Hints:
Blueprint: E1 22-24, H1 35-47, E2 52-54, H2 63-72, E3 80-85, H3 92-106, E4 111-116, H4 126-137, E5 141-147, H5 151-157, E6 165-169, H6 181-187, E7 191-195, H7 230-246, H8 251-261, E8 267-270, H9 275-282, H10 291-305
The chain binds NADP nicotinamide-adenine-dinucleotide phosphate.
Amino acid sequence: MTVAADLARHPLGTNPLPLLPMAQGGSWYAQDADDGALLAALEASYAAGIRHFDTAAGYGGGRSERLLGDFVRDKREGVFLASKAHGDDLTAAASLAEVEGSLGRLGVDFIDLYYIHWPRAGRDMRPVMEGLELARRQGKIGAVGVSNFTVAQMQQVAEVGHIDVHQLGFNLLWRYAEDATIPYCRENDIAVVAYSALGHGILTGKYGRDPGLAPGDQRHSILPFRADIWPHVFAGVEEMKALAASLDLPLSTLAIRWILSRPGIHSVVVGARNGVQATANVAALAPTISVATFAQMTSISDAIVAHVPDAGNLFNHYP
Length: 319
Ligand SMILES: NC(=O)c1ccc[n+]([C@@H]2O[C@H](COP(=O)([O-])OP(=O)(O)OC[C@H]3O[C@@H](n4cnc5c(N)ncnc54)[C@H](OP(=O)(O)O)[C@@H]3O)[C@@H](O)[C@H]2O)c1
C-alpha cells in the first residue's frame, strides 16, 4: 500500500506505536457474516498494509475480539490493537476487569488503545477512567480513549485521567461532532478517530432509491435510512457518485479521504464484511485528491446533513 503523503501518523504519549490513519473495524452488525469472511477481511486489509485494528468487547459478545486475537497471534509485532468496553458496573475495579477480559479474548498481554465505549447519561464515569489509568500504569494498555462522549462527559473523566483519543461517529452524512466535540479535542490535544466512515455502506453508493433492507437488518435503526430522511440522503449520494465517476475513483475512496481531510481528525475506522470490501477500502489511502474536490464533497454533504436531525448518535443507542 502507498499512503498519500498528507496522511499523518499521530504519536500517542508513551505508546510504542503511533495512531495510523486507517483501522480495519470489527463490523459490529455483520452478525450474519461467517468467521471465514470476517477473517478474510482482516487478512486482506493486513496484506494491503493496514496495521491498526479496532474491536470491542461487545461486538458479537466477544466473537470479534477472539477472531482478531486468532488473526494477530503470529503477527503481533507492529500491529496497533484498539478495543473498548462499556459494562453496567461503573467502578474502577470493573473497568480494570473489562481490560483483563479483552486481553484474555485477544490472547495478548498489551492493548495499544482502550476506549470507554459509551458514556452513561447522567452517571459519573470518573471511576471507569480511573480503572483505565490503573490498567495503563500496570502496563496492560498504552493509551486511553473515550467514545461517543459529549464535551461535558470528556471534561468529567479528564479530572481523573488523560484522554488520548476520542472515537466518534463522523461521515459525510453525520457531522455534529464538528460543532463542539472536535474543537474541544483539538484544543486539548486529543486525537480523533472517526467511525462509520462509509455511513454503514451508504457512502459506497450501492443503495438504490429504495434501500431494500431486509426485515431483520440492524441498519433499520440507523437514522439516514429513516423513510423521511432517506430521499435527501439518496439524492446527495447520487451527486457524490457523479463526482467520483468524473474522477474515475470509487465513492468510498472520496468518502474516506474527505474525513481524513477534515481538521482535527487523525484516523478512520472502516468496516468490511469480506476481503473484497477490505481491499477496496484500503485503496482509498493511495490517490492524491484535490482541495477543490473535498470542497465539492463538503457542499453536497451540507445539503444532506440539513435533513438529518441531531439525535445524539447515528443509531438511536442510549445505554
Ligand atoms: N465506537 C463506536 O461506538 C462504534 C460504533 C460503530 C462502529 N464502530 C467501529 O467502526 C467500524 C466501522 O463502522 P461501521 O461498520 O458501523 O460502518 P462503515 O465502516 O461505515 O460501514 C461498514 C459496512 O459497509 C459495507 N461496506 C464496507 N466496505 C464496502 C465496500 N467497499 N463496498 C460495499 N460495501 C461496503 C459493509 O456492510 P454490508 O456489506 O452489509 O453493506 C460493512 O460492514 C466498526 O467495524 C467498528 O469497529 C465503532
